[in-house]
Amino acid sequence: MNDHELAARLATEAGELLLAVRGELAHAEPQERKDEGDRRSHDFLMEALSARRPADAVLSEEGVDDPVRLAAERVWIVDPLDGTREFSELGRSDWAVHVALWQAGELVAGAVALPAQGVTLATPTVAAPPVAPESPRIVVSRTRPPAIALQVRDALGGTLVEMGSAGAKVASVVQGRSDVYVHAGGQYEWDSAAPVAVARAAGLHTSRIDGSPLVYNQRDSLLPDLIVCRPELAEAVLAVTAR
C-alpha cells in the first residue's frame, strides 16, 4: 500500500470509528463525546502508523510533540478529530479526520475524511471543483468569522457560507460548495496539512495570507493563517489579505 492509499484508508477508518463512538455516546454529555472521540481516534491512528510505517515520525494534535520529528525525513501530521464541537452535536456533518505525510520539506500525501458525509478526499488525484458562480462564496466559521474573511467578502462582492471544522471548510472548496477559505487568528499544522495537500491535488491555490508558502514540520507547530481558494480568485483575495 503506497502512502496515498494509506492516508486515505487511515482517515476513513478513523472516521468509521468516530461514527461508532458517536452512536455509543448518543445520550452522553457533549464533552464526553468530544473527549472519547479525540482519544480513540488518536490511539487508532498512532497504533496504525506504528504498525504500517514504524520508521516515520508523527505529529498529532492529541499527542505529545516528540522533537525527533524535526530531524526525521518523513513525518505524518494528523488531526484525529477536526471539529470536536460539531462532532459532539448529533446530526452535524461538518467535522473531519486529517492524515497527511510530510517528506523532505513538502506535503507529499494527504486525506481528509468527512465521515458523517460518507466522503474521503485524498491525494494523488482529486477532481477540480465545478465552475464557480458569479458571486464568490466565502466559507467561514459559524461562530467566529475572522474580520479578514469579511473584508474579502466585501471586496469580491461575495456571500458567506457558515461551516464547522477547517477540514470541512477546505473540502467545501474542493467540492465546489464554496470558493474561498481565508483564516487568520490561530491554527496549527495539523489543522491544515491534510486539507492543503488535498486542495493542491485539486489544483487550488494555497498560501499564507501574505502570499508566502505554507511550511510544515516546524519547531513551533503554530501556523495561524491560510488561504485556500480557486486559482482564478487568488489574485483578488491576496490583494485584500496581503495589505
From TrEMBL:
Q: Which GO terms describe its molecular function?
A: 3'(2'),5'-bisphosphate nucleotidase activity; metal ion binding
Q: Which cofactor does it need?
A: Mg(2+)
What InterPro entries does the record point to? CysQ/Inositol_MonoPase, Inositol_monoP_metal-BS, Inositol_monophosphatase-like
Binding residue positions for Mg(2+):
61, 79, 81-82, 191
A GO biological-process term: 3'-phosphoadenosine 5'-phosphosulfate metabolic process
UniProt key word DNA-binding? no
Q: Which UniProt keywords apply?
A: Magnesium, Metal-binding
Q: Which reaction does it catalyse?
A: adenosine 3',5'-bisphosphate + H2O = AMP + phosphate
**Which Gene3D superfamilies does this chain map to?**
3.40.190.80, Fructose-1,6-Bisphosphatase, subunit A, domain 1
Q: Does the keyword Metal-binding apply?
A: yes
Please give the name of this protein.
Answer: 3'(2'),5-bisphosphonucleoside 3'(2')-phosphohydrolase
